[in-house]
Write a structure and sequence with these properties.
Elements: E1 23-25, H1 41-47, E2 51-56, E3 75-78, H2 90-106, E4 113-117, H3 123-137, H4 141-152, H5 159-166, H6 174-180, H7 189-193, H8 200-216, H9 230-253, H10 261-266, H11 282-289, H12 293-299
Parallel strand pairs: 1-4, 2-3, 2-4
Helix pairs in contact: 3-4
Length: about 300
């Protein structure tokens, strides 16, 4: 069986939606696990539940079977672009833009995203997305490149793509601008499957209220028992050790292969869609939950 793409493991699977668009760039999904990483089409669809269209720019079709996208009602088109610094032709770019416009005419759901990938999700992917931003959305070349690289988490590997983009003059297609101006946000499939929202801010406020209420209660005020027994002290020490051990175990289990770790601890509720990014973005959670966020969730 042919192996995975070269250097595939050296690139992150995905990061975020490109600012001011509904494009989400990622590396090519691959049907097998590679060095402990699994990023198959099924994993992709779980991580991006609102994925509506996939634009495949890989030269080959050996990495995965696109039929799997049908299960998620995801449309897909494959344009076999050459890699290795070879720029797409004007005809190829025109066909891609026409395809995207045809999809946008039928996509009434304002939350859907367009996924774009080549082998590593950087050079061909970045060139097509940036060129679209420049020629359809009126974004300056430098700004388009900056937004793409920030969203992808990688910079262009081949300067030829950047140099060509910098030559372009911004122009606007008003239909495309209206469609993308809504912006996009990743919504994991788990969020779409569960009906009830959980607001992170409210969750933290409730927890802090319970904590303050517990701290306000007098301890051992009955019968002059002002000190805990040695057995009780040992039990508390054991619980602290257990909590610490669970936290360490939790850290080891919550890698990129388990993006839905939050839901295991929050229970039959979920993050609200506006508070979710890349199958639950670490930096956003840190902002809401603080440095001991995982312990907080376990205690909850």
């Amino acid at each position: 069986m042919p192996g995975p793409p070269k250097k595939w493991s050296e690139y992150t699977a995905m990061k975020d939606v490109v600012e001011g668009t509904r494009f989400i760039p990622f590396k090519t999904p691959y049907k097998e696990s590679v060095r402990g990483e699994r990023f198959s089409p099924d994993v992709l669809m779980r991580r991006i539940g609102n994925l509506g269209f996939v634009l495949n720019l890989v030269k080959t079709d050996r990495f995965y079977n696109p039929v799997v996208y049908r299960r998620g009602n995801i449309q897909t088109r494959h344009f076999r672009l050459e890699g290795h610094s070879k720029l797409p032709t004007a005809n190829e770019i025109e066909k891609i833009f026409i395809t995207l416009k045809e999809y946008m005419k039928t996509a009434e759901d304002q939350t859907v995203l367009i996924g774009v990938h080549c082998t590593h999700g950087v050079n061909r992917t970045g060139y097509v997305i940036c060129r679209y931003m420049i020629e359809q959305l009126g974004i300056a070349p430098e700004e388009a490149i900056s937004r793409f690289q920030k969203a992808r988490g990688h910079t262009f590997d081949h300067q030829e793509y950047v140099d060509d983009l910098l030559k372009l003059k911004p122009s606007v297609d008003h239909d495309s601008l209206a469609w993308h101006s809504i912006g996009g946000k990743i919504i994991p499939q788990r969020i779409l499957d569960i009906g009830e929202d959980i607001d992170v801010d409210e969750f933290i406020c409730d927890r802090n209220r319970r904590k303050h209420q517990t701290a306000a209660r007098p301890e051992d005020s009955m019968d002059g028992h002002h000190s805990r027994s040695s057995d009780d002290h040992a039990d508390r020490h054991h619980r602290r050790d257990s909590d610490h051990r669970r936290e360490r175990d939790f850290e080891s289990q919550s890698g990129p292969e388990d993006p839905d770790w939050l839901y295991k601890y929050v229970g039959p509720r979920r993050l609200s869609a506006p508070s979710s990014t890349e199958a639950i973005n670490e930096s956003e959670l840190a902002r809401f939950l603080g440095p001991r966020r995982r312990t907080i969730l376990e205690e909850y």
